[in-house]
Amino acid sequence: MFTNAQTDHITYDEFRTAIDSAVHQRNSAYSNAYALSIRWEDDDTRAHEDTAHFQCILKMLGLPKADELVLQPTDRTPGWTVQSSMVEMLEAARISQGKAIILCHYAGRAYHDKGAFMATAQADERPMNLGVFCLDLALDRSYYLADIDHVDVVFFLDCYYGFEASRAPPNSGDRIVEILAATGKTPRSALGLPPARNTVTGILAVEMMRRQREGHRSVEFADLVQALRGRDTVVVTPVHGLTMGASSAIRDSRLDRNSIPLELEFPLRRMPTVSSHRL
What we know:
Order of helices and strands: HEHEHEEEEHEHEHHE
Oligomer: single chain
Number of strands: 9
CATH topology: Rossmann fold
Largest sheet: 6 strands, mixed
Radius of gyration: 19 Å
């Protein structure tokens, strides 16, 4: 942060505060982990395959299997259904002992409407505001979590226009809210149509498995996204953003092995193959 509009340097106190914050975050360990994957029952983008990809990522990281929330065609208030599941998970993380991490995954259709991030089953059918009923719950502007709560959240938005959510300016604070999403370079009208291509969840899982086979012992989501963005073979380009905090929640760091480390070491086991598919 600049001291005033006429200077391009920061004060010693500002620099010290920034360093202390970074050191504090880097030396934190997660004692508890929670995960949720959301999709529509009548989805037409093969989102169920990306749920499997997300479960694969969690397994490689040694994290618990995600709860799967499948929104039913008969649900007339899907937003409230999502909010209920998110609030339950946020509350469990908030009251848990030690530092907690939440990983939330959405796969399916989405679009932007007058600044609102909307998710829908098919062709704008039964839209819900995913920003209000899901993403915003992790931020300080909601009443579910405050900066004093030791809960970091990572969102995987495997849908078009998810990149808009990652553009939000980061809020200050010790907590981390991180977003991994797809760019919007392919029109939403192409959803569910050929040619076949990988989704964001799929290419992240494949890249993690490649690194695992090469002997990597840790992973950082921001680094994964940066590496994938530089490859011409990637059809759906991932993006990464922070809406709270100063660094990725999943990053290199060797910490207490009795808790879940920020480096999230790969278990020494083979993982199933993740195939490419039509989104």
